[in-house]
Amino acid sequence: LQTVQDMIKFTIVTITFNAEGVLKCTLDSVPAQHFPHVEHLIIDGASTDSTLQIANDYKSLSDNAHLGHDIRIMSEPDKGIYDAMNKGLRMATGDYICFLNAGDFFPTPHTLDTIVEKSCLESVASTQWPAVIYGNTDIVDSHGHFLRHRRLTPPKKLSWRSFRKGMLVCHQAFYARTDIARHTPYDTRYRFSADVDWCIRVMKEAKRRELQLRYVEDVVANYTMEGQTTLHHKESLRERFDVMRSHYGIVVTIVMHLWFVVRQIIKK
Questions:
Q1: Given pLDDT bands bounded at 50, 70 and 90, which one contains residue 230?
Q2: Helix axis angle, 81-91 to 194-209, nearest 10°
Q3: By C-alpha distance, which of 118, 110, 116, 107 is closest to 216?
Q4: Which of 157, 150, 122, 147 is nearest to 136 (CA)?
Q5: 172 closest CA partner among 197, 211, 135, 120
Q6: pTM greater than 0.90
Q7: CB distance 138 to 148 below 8 Å
Q8: Crossing angle, helix 233-248 and helix 194-209, to 10 degrees?
Q9: In degrees rounded to 5, what are phi and psi of residue 216?
Q10: pLDDT for position 234
Q11: 42 vs 56, 76, 84, 88, 117, CA distance in Å?
């Protein structure tokens, strides 16, 4: 009998640009996965350092070792990280897609197996597979060392309205069904917060199709702090306000932001 592990395929998308210093841990963690059906797309923005050489060496090593992972590399100028992510969406052939960018990595070699097992995919027909499978995230430094659990933790019951309280699920821990993800590409008008908008729109589409959002109560991603959102914190906050306003309305957005301020004061 064919098992769900035989049926399902994951697409992992890694966006890179001059990422030679942080790429190795990401590339090491993907082929280490025991799960058999993995497509790894490396979308590079025409790096000028050794990023592309590292990626090509990784593909050659994987091909020669006959790991069974399908690795594809694209390198060309883009219009920003979300433009690159949309390229990944168009190229993806897996059932579920996850964006694991340079510096981010899987916690263990069994992460993808855990996602499949704990989301109980074998209990439903493939047409009724969850629109989103999501889990927990740990924060690591640029050397891959554990710093802390992510402050915002995912709820066991998630809906598109949940993000009124902030981005409760880290982008790297958000596995979207590829057919739905491709139907809702990233809005490239946002420079730093299109991932928040994208997650909300994917969940809205899940609601429209009456599909579940399934929680995996496990750490499924290690996220490196020094990302674009961290480097451009103020700009990101402004964009997130605009994203929330577009989905939840101005009154709810203002009330929730006032609560964010109060919450920070209470913690101090």
A1: low
A2: 40
A3: 118
A4: 150
A5: 135
A6: yes
A7: yes
A8: 30
A9: -105, 110
A10: 78
A11: 10, 11, 10, 8, 26
Q: Which amino acid would we find at residue 49?
A: D
- Full DSSP string of 209-232: HT--EEEEEEEEEEEES-SHHHHT
Pair of tokens at residue 124: 């439903």
Here the tokens at position 15 are 């966006």
Task: State the Cα–Cα distance between residues 154 and 135, nearest whole angstrom.
Answer: 7
Q: Which of 4, 2, 226 is nearest to 128 (CA)?
A: 4
The contacts of residue 56 (CB under 8 Å, 6+ apart) are 73
Q: Residue 47 region, left (φ>0) first, then alpha (ψ -120 to 50), else beta?
A: beta
CA dihedral (37, 216, 137, 152) positive or negative: positive
**Does 70 have pLDDT greater than 80?**
yes
pLDDT at 144: 84
Work out the angle at residue 176's Cα, subtended by the Cα atoms of residues 85 and 158, and round it to the nearest 5 degrees. Answer: 125
φ/ψ (deg, to 5) at 220? -115, 0
Instruction: Give the length of the chain.
Output: 268
Residue in this structure with the two tokens 């070792």, named with its chain if needed: 65
**In 3D, which of 183, 68, 178, 182 has the Cα closest to residue 126?**
178
Amino acid at residue number 181: A
The residue type of 9 is K
Tens digits of residue pLDDT in 182-194? 999 999 999 999 9
Model confidence pLDDT, tens digit, residues 154-175: 999 999 999 999 999 999 999 9
Between CA 186 and CA 180 the distance in angstroms is 12
Q: Which amino acid is at 148?
A: R
Identify the residue whose tokens are 């004061």. Answer: 265
